[in-house]
Amino acid sequence: MVKRLIQLISFFLLIVLSFLIYLSIYGISTNKFNNLISEKISERNENLNISLNNIKIFLNINNFNFELKTKEPKVFLKNKEIKIESISTDLPLKNFFSTKFNLEKIKIKTDKNKIKNLISVARTYRNNPQLFILNKIVKDGTMSLESKINFNEDGSIKNSYIIDGNVENLKIELLNEDLIENINFNFLIKDKEYLIYNLSSLYQSIDIKSNQIKIIKNQNKFEFEGDISNKKGKINFDKFSNFLNDDLKDIFKNNLIFNSNNKFSFKISKRIKLLDIKIQSKLSLESIKYSNNIFKRFFPGYKTDIKLQDNSITFDYDNGDYEINGKSKLNINDDVDDANYSIKKVKDELFYNLNFELINSAINFKILNYTKNKGDKSLFNLNGKFSNSKLIVIENIKLIQDKNFIDINNIVFGNNNKIKSLDGIRINILNDSDKYSELNIKRDNKNYIVKSKIFDGSKLVDEILFSKDDGNFFNLFNNLNSDISIKIDTAYINKEDYITSLNSNLIIKENQVFNLNLLSKFPNNEELKVSVRTNPNQEKITTVFTNHAKPLVKKYKFIKGFDGGSLDFYSISKNKKSNSNLKLYDFKLNEVPALTKLLTLASLQGIADMLSGEGIRFNEFEMKFNKDKGLMTIEEIYSLGPSISVLMEGYVQKDELISLRGTLVPATTINKAIGSIPLLGDILVGKKAGEGVFGVSFKIKGYPKDLKTTVNPIKTLTPRFITRTLEKIKKPN
Q: Can you give the residue ranges of every domain in the chain?
C-alpha cells in the first residue's frame, strides 16, 4: 500500500514537473488576457492601440511568476503602425486567478522599422523642433530594439527602464547637403543615459568607427562624450570646414588624405545649440597647403602654396580655442625640408610658431642681396600672431646660416599686407656679391635710427630707382609717418662703387619723403648731395648734385662705358605729378645700343664706330621731362658734343608704349652752319645738288621689347635746333 502510494505520488510529481518544464519552455496559449492587456496599455496612452494574437503563458521557475508573451501584435500610435516582434509581461502567481490585474513590467521587442516611419509616428505624438530637424536630415535606415519597462502602481513608468537597440544603414544629409551613409550602431537607453556603441559609418569614402558615445540628459541639456576614429581616406574639407572655425580654412585645403583618432565632448541645449565643445585628436595627414603672399618676399619661385607633407599632428579644441602641434616635411617648389610648428588660438588671437631646418630650400632677402642657397644648412624661425582686427604680427623672423644671421622683430602687417610698424632689424651677412653687410635698425617711439659700419645697398638703390611702384620704397609700409636718422660708414651703391660717411635725416609723412638731407663722399673725395624739401604749397623739390656722376649713371644698364661727368638733377612734384630737369656735363659714352643703331641706320658709320670703340665725348646733356602717373612726357632732350648733337622729344607710357622723335647732326656740320650765319640761306639750301645735308631725323616707336626705328636724311635744320645750339655754345664754360 505504501509502495503504491509512493508510486502514485512520484507519478503525480513527474506529471507536475513535466508540466512545469513544458510550461517554462513551450508555454500554453490563451486569449484570456488579450483584452485586459490591451486595456491596460491603452490606459497608459490613449493614442496607443494594440491588437494581440493569442498570448502564450510561460512559467518563470526562478520566481514562480508567469510570463505572458505574444508575437507579432498589431501596434498603432495615432493610426501609424509600428512593427513589433513580440510583447511580454510578468504576472504574479497570486494574480493568475484574480480578476484584478496590475501591469508591473513589460518587454517589447520590435521588428526592423524604417526610421523615417518611427520619426513620423513620434511627431504625431510630440512634434518638437528636435524631431522636425531629425526628420529633415534622416534619409534612410532601420531600427530595432528590445525594451524592458517597469511601472509604478499608478501606471507611470519607473526610471529603471532599459532599451537596447540596433540601427542599420542609416543615411543622414548634413546642412551642406553632404551625406553620411552606412551608419550602423547599437544603443542602450536608461533613465537620462544613452549609450551608442560599436558605431561604423561612411563619410566621403572615409570609414568611421567609434567604440562608444555616451549621452547624459542633465536638466535642459544633453551632454555628449565619446571617441571616433577613421582609417586613411580622402575628404573634401571645403564641406567639412563649414562646421569648424573660419581660422582653420586658411590652413586646411581641399581633398585631405588622413587618418585620425579622436576624443570629444560637448553639450546640446534645448534649442539645438552646441556648447562646451572639447576635442582631442591625433591625426596623420598626407599634405596641408597654406597660401600667403608674404612668402613671395622670402622664397624664390614661390607660386601659390607652401605644402606641409607627412604630417603628424595633435589637435586640442576647447570652446573655440584650440592648439595644433605638428611635425612635417616642408615642400616649397618640390624642395623638401623638416619642419615643426604650433598654432594656438586663444579668444580672438591666433598664435603661431614655425621652425624649419632648411637644407634643400632657398630663402631670398632680395633687398639685402642675400640668398640662403640650396644645400646650405640653416635654421629658420617665424613666430607671431593674427588678431581679430585682421592684423598679422610677426613677432620674430630669425635666419641663422653659418656665421650669417638676420633677426627681425615685431613686424605688424595690415589687412593690405603692408607694414604698419617694425620694432627692429639686426643683420650680419656675407651677401651674394661677397660683400659683408651689417645693419642695425631700432624703433624709437614712432621714429627710427639706422646705423651701420658697412652696408651693401645696391639692391635697395635699385628698388628706389626701378620699382614698378612709382619708385617709392616706402610703399612697403602702411601710412608711415616717422623721422629716420641714418649713419653708415661705408655704403655700396653697386658692385664696385661706394660712398663713405653717409649721414642723412629723413622726415616721412604718409609714406612720402617730406624732407631729406643726405651728404656723403666718394673715395675720390667728391661729394654726393641729395635734398628733398616740401614747401608751403605742398610741392616737393628734389635736388641731386655730384661731380662724380659715373657710379649713379652705371645703375642704368642700357648705358655702358659712361665716364667722367657731373650730375645736376632738379625736380618739383605735387599730387603724383612732377616736372624735372636732368643735366650732365663733360662726360664720355662708350656704348648706348639705341644710339649706335640710330647712327648705323643714318649711315654715320664713323661716329657709330667711335661710339662702340673709344667712345663719344659730350660737353652737355639736358633732359626736361614730366611725369603724371604712368606717363612720362619728354619735353626735350638735348645733347651737345664735339662729334655729334641730338635733339629729341616724345613720351614713354610705363611698360606699354614708347614714342620718340628727334634730330641727330654731326658736329662738323653744325660748326660749319653756325660759322656761316650771314650766309645761312645758302648753306641750308646748298649751292649745288647734294650739298647741305646736315644730318638725319628719326622716330623710335613701339613696345619696350619691340621698338621700330625709322631714319630720314635732312637738308635743313629746324630753327629750334639752331637756337638750342647757339644757346649752348654761347654759355660760358
A: 24-111, 433-585, 622-730
